[in-house]
Structures are given as C-alpha cells and as structure tokens.
Design goal:
The protein has about 140 residues and is an alpha+beta fold. Helix content is about 20%, strand content about 35%.
C-alpha cells in the first residue's frame, strides 16, 4: 500500500517537473515585422503625395521599423506596387501588385512588411499611364513604442 502511494506521488512529481520544463523551455514567438497585434492602438506617422511616372518607379515608403499599416490612395490612374527591395526584378506595366484607379487600400504590415515600397503608374490594360500627372497619396501608421 505504501509503495503504491509513493509511486503515485513520484509520478505526480515527475509530471509536474516535465510540465514545468516544457512550459519554460519553449521559446517566445518572435514578433512580426512591425505588425500590430489585434486591437492595438497605432499612431499616424506620415502622409505624402507622390507624383508617379509610367516609365520609372518612384519610392512610396522607405524602410521603417514599427510600422503597423500603410494606406495608398490612387488618383485616376492605376498603379503597380513593389513591396520590398527585391533587386532581381523591376516594376513594369505587368509586374507588381495592381491597385486600381481611384481606390484606397490598407496594407497590414504583418502581411506586407515595412520595407522599401516603390510604384509605377500603369494603364488599365497594363499599358503605360495616359494621365498627365498620376499620383498616389500614401500614409503610414506606427505602433506605440
């Protein structure tokens, strides 16, 4: 009888030790590149009106830390957006993330990152933009630091 009680106590202590070790040995997950946790407050950081070109890409956002969201509002010309500094490819009328004309789109940094973003104006069918001065209004929000 005493041996069974000691065995049960030993097993309980063993499970407690294993549970404690498993809980505290797990690494904490690394935060995403600036992504805001759900429901977290953010601050307005910058807004700029960028004049775009249909022949060369223009910088929309520089690389930043702590950005939570980026918002792009296009004029009457659609744009192609390149998110990140990928030297192996360049923007064109058929490459890049397409954002239609006269739209506002929010890009969460947890999905799209906080790196360098560039854009080029494009036509509705992938041809060069025809508007004389296509533009984009860009806004960045950052989390409390």
């Amino acid at each position: 009888m005493m041996q069974k009680i000691l065995l049960i106590i030993g097993l309980v202590v063993l499970f407690l030790i294993i549970g404690y070790w498993a809980y505290y040995s797990m690494p904490e997950p690394e935060p995403r590149s600036g992504s805001a946790p759900t429901g977290a407050a953010t601050n307005y950081a910058t807004t700029s009106l960028i004049t775009l070109s249909n022949t060369a890409s223009r910088d929309l956002f520089a690389t930043s830390t702590g950005c939570t969201a980026r918002i792009i509002t296009t004029s009457s010309t659609p744009v192609r957006i390149k998110m990140g500094d990928h030297a192996e490819w360049t923007l064109s009328n058929s490459r890049g993330i397409f954002q239609p004309a006269s739209t506002t789109q929010t890009y969460d940094s947890g999905l799209y990152g906080c790196g360098l973003w560039t854009a080029v104006a494009t036509g509705p069918d992938g041809e060069g933009a025809t508007q004389p001065s296509p533009s984009a209004l860009v806004t960045e929000f950052r989390g409390f630091q």
